[in-house]
Amino acid sequence: MAVNVVESKEWYLAGYAADGVPTTDHLTLRSVPLSLSLDSIPDAHVAVQLLFISVDPYLRTRMSGQEDGLYFPQFSLNQVITAFGVGRVMRSKDEKYSEGDIVLNAFFPVAEYCVVPSSVLIRKIDPEAGIPLPEYLSCLGVPGFAAWVGIEVLGEAKPGSNAFISAAAGGVGMVAGQLAKLKGCRVIGSTGSDAKVRLIKEEFGYDDAFNYNKEVDFDATLSKYFPNGIDIYLENVGSKMLEAVLNHVNPHARIPVCGMISQYNQIWTEREGVRNLLNIVGKEVRMEGFLVGSYLDRFADFTVEMEGYLKQGKISSKIKIYEGIQSFAESLGSLFSSSNFGKVVIEVNKPR
Ligand code: NAP
């Protein structure tokens, strides 16, 4: 007999974290009954069982309680956190969706089950396409798309360009490095452990890489790895690394600014400044912040290209899977350490 009420665990924001890594002091898990009976689902809505949730650094920037220009607006207190996710339709009041459809949404509640308007669903996923579902949150999701916009669209990667990628073993970095290699660049990455340095060289094909935690003088490090200067820097971390890069950029270098994760846990007055921004004038550098949401008109081009690379084995990925919705706070905190390889995803319910 069909289940009509489920107990659904969900994470909500109990308090803002102005600085530091948000913990269970700020994020709280509660259990709520959710009716799945068709009578209780509004028209043009679907009931969804969450399968995978993407854990991304920008989520932290929505929990500071301060509107300081980063990504999306702040979550409200008591609001259920939302995140990119993959789910399975359980009940549908929209003829475009049927029970069993696998769907993608950029703003699913971080919960086990939900009822959402069908208009928020981005698309259906074909589970027979031969691509593992978490990959739709990784290479084929926000990190992969950010890497593509950064390297191909704004970075204008071409054969022979010298490309540098920070947070090179993360969700964005692992794809960015491989895309830049496919475009014929010489690619160097920075990351936070020796194991990750090995990973990005051996599995993601980086020409070379270094552990930034072991380097005392980034300027000297970049002199060693970039004797001919930097043409493209995909900026993921900010602060001292950006400052060092600006001393090594070639004329007309491109710096697509994807994020600055080293600064997300400080209030803005405590963040580190960059002293040599003037170099972008003399070197006529194009340094440009971007949000993937502004490039959705290119998402279809990206998807075709990336699906091709995945099927041909030209791009590989590593996904760190946390088990169960209860792992959300822990998995979010892990983004601010060097503990994980690749893209961080929560498996909420096992796909059938
Ligand atoms: P991710 O997979 O979660 O990787 C985060 C990694 O950042 C960590 O594993 C850690 O790796 C590194 N990190 C953490 N704290 C650091 C610090 N203080 N200094 C240097 N590195 C640090 O993240 P992601 O999804 O790849 O995101 C990378 C960047 O892209 C973030 O800044 C994110 O906000 C941004 N982003 C932007 C867009 C956009 O539309 N603009 C879209 C997606 C992501 P290490 O071991 O290397 O330290």
Automatic annotation (TrEMBL):
Alphabetical keyword list: Oxidoreductase
One function term, GO molecular function aspect: 2-alkenal reductase [NAD(P)H] activity
Gene3D superfamilies found in the cross-reference section: Medium-chain alcohol dehydrogenases, catalytic domain, NAD(P)-binding Rossmann-like Domain
Segments forming domain Enoyl reductase (ER): 23-346
Protein known as: Enoyl reductase (ER) domain-containing protein
